Amino acid sequence: MGFPLLPRALNPFALMRGPRTLTPGVLASFDHIDAAIDAIHALRAQGHRRLTVYSASPNHELEEALEAPVSSVRLFTLFGGLAGLTGGFGMTIWMNMDWPTLVGGKAVAAVPAFVAIGFELTVLIGSLATILGVLLLVLAQGQRGVLYDERFSDDRVGVFVAADAAHARPIEQLFRNAGAVEVRHATA
Q1: Among 87, 126, 131, 159, which residue's CB has the most CB atoms within a 10 Å radius?
Q2: Which residues share a beta bridge with 182?
Q3: What does the angle CA 126 – CA 129 – CA 133 come to, to the nearest 5 degrees?
Q4: pTM
Q5: What are the tens digits of pLDDT across the range 17-37?
Q6: Is 185 exposed, middle or buried (CB count within 10 Å of its CB: 0-12, 13-18, 19+)?
Q7: How far apart are CA 172 and CA 26, in angstroms?
Q8: How far is the C-alpha of 41 from the C-alpha of 38, rounded, in Å?
């Protein structure tokens, strides 16, 4: 995504991505998901924790093999929703207390009348906080410069391991033993 006609210095998406440096490591491509899972288990047994796995669709077996922690995006959603709920009720109650209008003998701060505004602001602020959380976490994870193959969005599964040149050969052999159909190296 971006504006290809803009020079890199004026392209906001290119500036957000930072300099184009390639993370050194090994990328393996698998035809079968079971082979990729075997490779992930073997890598984790050797102590590799930062693995990047590409798959065209979500797969629970891959998530279990990676032992991926639960995303913290849900905390952004929770706090955004609570802020919207508090803001919705607080704003309407404050406005009615500031300019009291008695209608039909009801209390000035009648909570049932403010439920719709509180609900709408809960959904709005919660949604915006979720989008903000996704953007912040994507930028914070720093997955820039990791090798990728377009076939991973079609029918293959990819596993990338960051490694220097000294450790690349044993990882390549591990991938080939697990059933990788293609192994590529990235050098800095």
Answers
A1: 159
A2: 29
A3: 135
A4: 0.64
A5: 555 677 888 999 999 999 999
A6: middle
A7: 7
A8: 5
